[in-house]
Amino acid sequence: MGDRAFIVFSVGPVQSFISAARTLRDLWTGSFLLAWLTRKAMEPIYSKHGVAAFIEPDMSDDPMSPQNLRKELRSPCLPNRFLAEVPAEEAESLANACRNAFEAAWRSIAEKVRETLHTKIEDLKGGWLAEWESSVNRFWNAQIDSFFDVRVTVVPQEAISESAIESLLGHQAASGDAWANAPEEDKLWTHRAELAARVHATHKVIRKVTTYSPEPDELGMYPAKCSLLGTYEYLGPAELTKAAEFWQALSGKNGLSVGGVRIRSGERLCAVSLVKRFAWPAYFAEEFGADPRKMRLEDLATVAAAEWLRQEPPLSPEKVREEHGVWSGEWLHWDRPELDEDEGACPDAVWKQIKDKRARQGAAPNYYAVLMMDGDRMGKHLRARPGRQHPQTISKALMMFALRYAPKIVEKNYGVLVYCGGDDVLALLPTTTVITCAQELNEAFRKVWAQVVLQGVPGESATLSAGIAVVHYKEDLRFALETARQAEKHAKNNGRDLVAITVCRRSGEHTTALCPWPFLDDVKGWVSAFTPTQQNRAGASDRWARHLYQELPVLKGLPVEAMKAEIRRQVDRAEESTRKLLSPNEPKKAGAKIVEQLERFGSLWDQRSRSRGKAGALPPGPGIQNGQLLENFLTLCQTASFLARRRDQ
């Protein structure tokens, strides 16, 4: 094959770009933009050497090709990084071409947005075009050109000698039967690929020197910071009074609109935020021949109520939008049909439907869930077998999960899939379906891994850690995303292969509970018991759990049997309807059933501890005698109650 070289490509910042969002549309568009731009960066290699050149990700079913996207607009599923193997003599030129392709695509989208906004502002009343052009000339290119940090590393394989591998890696990767029986060339290839990744990681540690030097206005003034990306100034006048008038003219229902996409009241945006906001209607709608109005993503209030809206009699936001030209999830929580001028009045026919549904089902849910999932120790799995084929097989499994399973599972559970890169998932869902969705994603991930990677041969399955944040739809979306991210990190830091659920109540009380995957069935049982129904409008009471939580300082010091006795006492003194819902088959033994679930919870932690050799946050020992374990269990009970009721009590 001749001399070969690795090309490692990555782009950042990822989290700050995607999470700088006030709406679900902003969030999804940021994710889509990164995937689209990364695919553009792959094009020089793809067009010359085809899908076989890519080791990570698998490109055999190119998910971001214009042909595929025109057929079916998929959720973004390309990571912001790729690893390719090319002839060594072409590597440098291809690497430069990848960087140039990314930057050219980004500038092309930004320029189209700029031109579109120019036209819209020209048509606005108030004569703001001169102010717009002045700020664009000073800030637009400076912000667009300085935002992304593109890193491309070329590592010729021949440059990595066996002595260098021995010096830098030692024998840490060469273990197990797969390594002992593998050809030397496969071992060498894997070591070289790992070193290429490490070289790139070292390259990324070196901080980017940003050349961002915008000019002040004629008075030497700069505008204040963007309301989404605080690193850049917003466009428009620098003087505060003029700036307020400028952005008031651009925002709201009487401001500029591109394919139905608007600037919200109170927002003041920089060039990067404006590109995120208007990229779809200004650029991608034409690129894919799609109606931008059909690309709407629902607001967070609608996400929270997605399952509630589908219950009989169903109320479809899509149909309301077709018939009346407008829909807002805010209407579900109003006490009159003209509560908010910015949102617009709710049509009389829709208002009647909303009132009827409230009478039948109770108030609409006002909390939703952010689900983040990430693969555990993927680097270890990639090194489990030497040779090029193994990481490509893993890449194939991850892409199969991202394309064939994750979108359907999230949609079935009334959610919105923002991103799935294979071993990482971001989705927004109703609180009543988020646990089922997480379970089904976890099961599908393990199934694909077993079929594609293990192929029936006994081996270690890959695992996922998940973070769930339950937040009010009026909370800042950036707060919700960061809370889910911290929950996922909490699961990772406490042993992996776990779910961490954080509930953020509007009252200010925030709680986090850890849960092993198998115990989620018990949590779902609680959610079902606590959920109000037509037969039982209140659902099971959770007073027993709250009383036990208040008694924790005493319970933690009790002998195990005394602790169990108090749990049974609190549950068994609950009203009969609660005991029937908690233990349908034997209501008189509801207390005993809760104790059995606590013992099962402790047993699962003990099993994890023995299999891992350590305990993480909830150590083994005398089972439920561990106070932290009991506290976590009771927090899970209360979390289940909150997921079921979906609102502050």
Describe this structure in words.
- There is one protein chain.
- The chain is of the alpha+beta class.
- The protein is built from 25 helices and twelve strands.
- It has helices at 15-19, 24-49, 66-71, 88-123, 129-147, 162-168, 177-180, 184-205, 240-250, 271-288, 300-304, 306-310, 317-324, 348-361, 378-382, 389-412, 434-454, 477-493, 520-530, 543-550, 552-555, 560-572, 576-582, 590-612, 627-645; strands spanning 4-12, 54-56, 81-87, 149-156, 257-258, 261-262, 367-375, 416-420, 424-430, 464-472, 498-504, 510-516.
- The strands form three sheets. Strands 8-9-7-10-11-12 form a six-stranded mixed sheet.
- Helix 4 crosses helix 10 (271-288).
- The termini are far apart.
- Residues 614-625 have low confidence and may be disordered.
